[in-house]
Amino acid sequence: MRLTRGMRGFTIVELAVVILVISLLLGSILVPLGAQMKQRNKAETQRLLEDVRQAVIGYAMINGRLPRPSDTATPGTERAACTAEAQCTGFIPWATLGIAPTDAWGKVLRYSVHSSYAGGTSGTALITTATFGTAGRTVKTRDAAGAEVIVATNIPAVILSHGERNLGTTAAGMPLPDSPDANPDEDVNAAAGSDTFWWRPPADSAGAPGGEFDDQVVWITPSQLFSQLVAGGRLP
User: Fold this and answer.
1) Is the N or the C terminus of the chain less surrounded, counting Cβ atoms within 10 Å?
2) pLDDT per residue over 74-102, tens digit each?
3) Would you say residue 92 lies in a domain?
4) 236 assigned to some structural domain
5) Residue 138 has pLDDT above 90, yes or no
6) 77, part of any domain
7) 197 with 139: CB under 8 angstroms?
8) Contact 165/179 with Cβ under 8 angstroms?
9) What's the Cα-to-Cα distance from 163 to each of 32, 93, 103, 193, 199, rounded to whole Å?
């Protein structure tokens, strides 16, 4: 059967044009979709951090002290002692708190608590009004020129997500590599014995003051903890 002009198929050039048009259309859809997913994950992680903060405070209302960190990502139970500062930073004790362990990127949340709020040198001491006069964690940010600015001091506990890029540990306990780009503020947040934490707007460039940054950080203030312990009858 002979094909008429109206029955002929597409030429290679015509097919290439069609594929190009489809690719451009898909690209215009997928790029915004990727940005939307990123924002959704950030928002989901922020909500999780807020929920975990309330769970940590709730633990103190029941037990009279803040929980200690977990040594490892699994099994997620608090370590036996937190009498030295090097022992007081680790993973959120998710099993002890009965919460989900990971952020929206599947990384286990980090947690740091000052020893005086987590049992003191005995490991069993309860929080008293005198506890609030002790030292705590420090939270810093950077101004537009990149200079360090202290946001909060004497912080009982800090909870953080390492974000989408760089660092962190999966729920299976697998550590993720650091970025080859400069991110010194994120490295401070990841340090085992750190008592200072950075809270900054996100930065994608290694050339930004303090390097690239996508950590999300929340903390418990002394006034928050004190008021909740009073409300729960733990403090007069």
Assistant:
1) N
2) 999 999 888 877 789 999 999 999 999 99
3) yes
4) no
5) yes
6) yes
7) yes
8) yes
9) 20, 19, 8, 20, 12
List, in order, residues 6 or more apart from 59 with CB less than 8 Å away: 66, 67, 96, 97
Encode 79-110: b = buried (16+ Cβ within 10 Å), e = exposed. bebbbebebbbbbbbbebbebebbbbbebbbb
Q: How confident is the model over 165-185, as pLDDT tens digits?
A: 888 999 889 998 877 777 899
Q: How many domains are contained in the chain?
A: 1
- Among the listed ranges 7-11, 139-143, 180-184, which one has the minimum average pLDDT value? 7-11
Task: State both tokens at 41.
Answer: 């994950």
Nearest CA to 153 out of 139, 142, 133, 134 is that of 139
Domain that holds residue 222: 10-231
Predicted TM-score (pTM) of the model is: 0.84
